[in-house]
Specification:
It is built from 13 helices and eight strands. It is of the alpha/beta class and about 280 residues long. Helix 8 (about 175-185) crosses helix 13 and helix 9 packs across helix 10. The radius of gyration is 22 Å and the shape is elongated.
């Protein structure tokens, strides 16, 4: 498959690097971005190709299966899809069948059904909800496939996002709003906790560098232990908590301040906002 990235930002660069590192040939990857400087940086970094437009892309590439990764700001997705539809519509029927485009979107909030309203009829779309640790290959991505996607196309989308970390599929697109509330926005929750743990440690007398190091490394270590899945998080918490000890004293304050309810309400707010954004970006 030929991969075409629309957008040359951080997420696109992460996925392109993952493809190259996993054996994809540089000449099987192309980038399109109106920002010529960003485009040039990605081309130089990975030795891939660039194209000025979809029309130029179709002239340069052979008619074979094409995977197009939409990695642009949400409000740009509609014009991108419409530009593709216009260029694709000028190809003959045989070329269109050979290209059999698969769209993989990492643009936040834009639903697969919205994209399909702007793309040629019957276009296969995989919508993804990655998170920022994907830039380090440590992300987790939720994926949803439209009915038009073949098993092979789903596997190709998985292989692409697997280079950025863990992937999981959801059967209903609406579940991506829940994914957004957990993992899409989730890194910010942990950064928030680290930030305030560090501030509290400084209030207890530690210098700023030591406080930050202790908070960050504790978060990393705890997440690493949970990631082994040898024990559920609740059991790991209990194992650290001695009756009448320091950890118990801290957790009692969390409970007294209503932390479980705060977490539920915060994630519900993130979910509801994701639904609102999807509605706003849908075709009118």
């Amino acid at each position: 498959m030929q991969w075409v990235f629309i957008g040359a930002g951080n997420m696109a660069s992460s996925l392109i690097g993952g493809l190259i590192n996993n054996g994809a040939a540089a000449d099987s990857v192309t980038v399109i971005d109106p920002n010529s400087e960003a485009c040039a940086r990605v081309v130089e970094r990975f030795g891939i190709q660039s194209a000025a437009s979809f029309a130029a892309l179709f002239e340069a590439l052979p008619a074979e299966p094409l995977g197009l990764v939409i990695a642009v700001k949400p409000h740009i997705v509609e014009p991108v899809c419409r530009d593709f539809a216009a260029a694709f519509g000028k190809l003959d029927a045989q070329a269109q069948e050979q290209i059999a485009p698969l769209f993989v979107s990492v643009a936040a909030g834009v639903r697969a059904s919205s994209m399909q309203a702007w793309l040629p009829s019957g276009t296969a779309v995989v919508r993804c909800m990655p998170n920022t640790p994907a830039l380090l290959g440590l992300g987790v991505t939720g994926l949803f496939a439209s009915n038009e996607c073949s098993e092979q196309q789903c596997s190709q989308a998985s292989a692409l996002l697997d280079t950025a970390g863990v992937t999981l599929w959801v059967e209903k697109e609406s579940m991506l709003d829940a994914v957004t509330a957990v993992s899409g926005s989730g890194p910010a929750y942990f950064f928030y906790l680290i930030e305030h743990m560090s501030a509290a440690a400084q209030a207890l007398g530690l210098d700023a560098e030591s406080a930050e190091t202790l908070a960050i490394e504790t978060a990393f270590g705890a997440a690493s232990m949970a990631r082994t899945r040898e024990l559920p998080p609740g059991q790991l918490r209990e194992n650290v908590t001695s009756k009448g000890g320091t950890t118990a004293a801290a957790l009692e304050v969390f409970d007294a301040q209503g932390t479980p309810a705060i977490v539920r309400e915060a994630m519900q707010a993130a979910h509801d906002r994701a639904v609102e954004l999807g509605d706003q970006l849908a075709p009118k």
